[in-house]
Amino acid sequence: MKILMMGPPGAGKGTIAEMLSENFGVVHLSSGDILRDAIKENNPLGMKAKAFMEKGVLVPDEIIIELMKEKLNTDKFVLDGFPRNLAQVKKLEEANIGIDIVLNLQVDEETIISRISGRRICEKCGKIYHLKNMPPKKNGICDVCGGKLYQRKDDKPQTIKERLNTYKRQTEELIKYYGEKGILKNIDAGGNKETTYAKITDLEWLKKRRYK
Questions:
Q1: Domain-by-domain residue ranges, the chain?
Q2: Are the C-beta atoms of residues 174 and 89 closer than 8 Å to each other?
Q3: What amino acid positions are annotated as catalytic residues?
Q4: What are the average pLDDT values for consecutive 10-residue runs of the chain, which has 212 residues?
Q5: Rounded Cα distance, 164 and 156, in Å
Q6: Of 10, 24, 95, 165, which is most buried by a Cβ count within 10 Å?
Q7: pTM for this prediction
Q8: CATH topology of domain 2-107+159-207
Q9: Hey, how many other C-beta atoms are within 10 angstroms of the C-beta on 212?
Q10: Number of helices (H) and strands (E), helices first, in the chain?
């Protein structure tokens, strides 16, 4: 069971991937988490990636792919945040790492902006809040440690729109590619996580594999 999660920022890819991991016994592989862990562990590839990140440029595909290949030693995984473009897909296929099904989470721009722009993070402990869905007890203050909450630059409406435009440009050919292969499933993810997850588990492909 090799699953790829796709969807714009704020679509809920990580959340749904975690739910699939818990209920289907698949390994959740987030490219962002793997990259951060590699840097934290002083992994040689992580150090190479860090050098690019500190310069404010994208980490080359070769480094990301090598980091992912170290983790892709199982036939039961759900990928989150990778691959992001057709070149990365080709590299995976060259390494004999295939994808069985692609779950493409679809959310309208207004909902995404509302989800992401409402996010606040504690500057001390890193706990995440949402002004609407999970607000702190005291405005602007973390419930856990009393730290000040802040909004990331990436979470501001104008930046979100730029991120969405980048996502569309990067993944347009990817969606077409997997669609032509017949393994792309478009999922309306505009509701809550439970509703989205129910739509996914109702897919015939997953029903057949629920107890395997």
A1: 2-107+159-207
A2: yes
A3: 13, 84, 119, 152, 163
A4: 90 89 87 81 85 73 80 81 84 82 93 89 88 90 94 84 86 92 94 91 78 45
A5: 12
A6: 10
A7: 0.79
A8: Rossmann fold (3.40.50)
A9: 8
A10: 9, 8
